[in-house]
Amino acid sequence: MRISRRELGCILPVALAAWPLTAAAQSSNAVEGIANYAGADRQAMLEASARRERGLLLYTTGTQIEPLIRGFERKYPFVKVTVQRGTQADIARRALTEYRLGYRKLDMFELSSEGLILIRDANILQPFRSPEAAAFDAAAIEPARHWVVVRESYTGIGSNTKAIPPARMPKTYDDLLAPVKAD
Fold first, then answer.
1. Which residue among 1, 16, 87, 128 is the one 20 to 30 A from 109 at the CA level?
2. How far is CA 40 from CA 10, 46, 138, in A?
């Protein structure tokens, strides 16, 4: 799988923006400055910081991000991504506990918006800006710029047309609650 510029453009700023340039840069003001830096040398600055850091810690709920990580590491071979997996609840609990204990090694999350809300509300996430955000619909960007939705999942209703006549098929999720009588 090839990693798209759009995906890299959103992942790199999220991944690298939290990385301090120096030990003194670990204050929230310094991280905010990095995460929202818009100078012409932005990419070079992020990459230089990543070279010094050499690693990235990602918390995620599944394995679906593996092709993206492999593409990221091919493009940025100087960054090794370490992945910690768990359920949304486990990741949120772990992040909150680590944050309260002063453990600041976590660089980014790959979770659903619902999973990020608890973490955001605990003021753990740093808002960021990326020039790649212009490629996304405004509704995909969390209002305070804590994350960008890079994929969506959809569900639908399917019916067995041999068992249920088309005129009596459920058309809404509420219709699924009403039993269909056999002919």
1. 1
2. 17, 12, 24
CATH number of the CATH domain containing 68: 3.40.190
From the list 87, 86, 88, 81, the residue with the least C-alpha distance to 118 is 88
Q: What is the rounded CA–CA span in Å between residue 63 and residue 27?
A: 32
- The answer to the question of residue 182 being in a domain is no
pTM of the entire predicted model: 0.64
163 found inside a domain: no
Range of the domain at 101: 5-140
Dist. CA 168–CA 123, nearest whole Å: 50
**Is residue 67 a part of any domain in this protein?**
yes
103-148: pLDDT as tens digits: 888 888 888 877 888 889 988 888 998 888 899 999 999 999 998 8
* Structure tokens given for 14: 């999220």
Residue 94 belongs to some domain of the structure: yes
Which helix or strand (DSSP H or E) is residue 108 part of? strand 108-110
Closest CA to 39 of 131, 143, 165: 131
Domain count, the chain: 1
Q: In one letter, which amino acid is 32?
A: E
